[in-house]
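Re: the request from the purification team.
They wanted to know what the chain is likely to look like in 3D before they choose a buffer screen. I agreed to run a prediction and write the result into the notebook, where they can find it.
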Amino acid sequence: MGLLKYFKGNSEDPISASHAQEISEMIQVCDEKSCHGECEGDESDIEEGETAFAKLKIDHETPLYNSSKPPKLQFVVPTSQIDWAHEACSEHTSSVEYQISKWCEVHESKFKKVGQGVNLRCAVSSLPKNIMDVQVMKRIKNNVLVLPHFIWIDGLTSDKVNETLDKLVPELLTKSTEELPLELMGLRLAKEQAFVFICSHMKRDKRCGIMAPYLKKTMDKQLQHHGLYRDNSDFSPDGVRVAFVNHVGGHKFSANMQIYLKTPNTLIWLGRVTPKNTPYVVNELIVPEKPRLPWPEKVRCLQKYNCW
């Protein structure tokens, strides 16, 4: 019991001692009191968000750890939207995201024993799309972010999805990024040091749609203090981009936050995140070279990938 008390943060969320120990072996765990959770600037946004969160019915009884599956690859398609149809990737059957999601469904079992993680996933996000490109506006072309590799597939068209992924995915799961001829393959490296995705899928569950804007606002303010905030027009390197994403599963654990860190090649997927947690996310998980985790009880899954 003493071990569990040491590892557990100051929250009501349950976690077993064995799970807390397992998490601590993958990432340094710190006592919330010793972590840097100071809010930079006005705290009114955090207080407003906490008030909104308190009104929502959230499952605090079910342990979070292993309630989600870390992807081997996550394809993230920009849409410039913050909400989508109930089945987001199937809204337009001619779209790039639809073709990617179908490819993942068909081929996932083929790569079961290759690479780290469990599944192949396609998501749509609020990342900006090129509104000046007619094909992009018709959804038959888009740039696609591939995580955890931090690379972009540029100008991928719907009719080339199968051909492209047939060649690319085996390479990504067996080789480092340095071994890939990126330009020849139509790829480029993402400049960001981290991507943070917050589920905002209101049409799936209103709790996500309510909490996501509060979290993004408070995250962005914290990142500004460190010079890491990047808006949709700022592509300077080594920043952190926070964006909305469609349903990730487990909306009863809202708010859901996926944190992809380029260094040390890690996905930290949190649940039951509230605005008061965001200073800790920035100051302890994103800013330091070696991240520290204040609340293992909020971890849905944690995956350390090979150095790409």
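For the purification team: Residues 1-8 have pLDDT under 50 and may be disordered.
Please add any questions underneath this entry.
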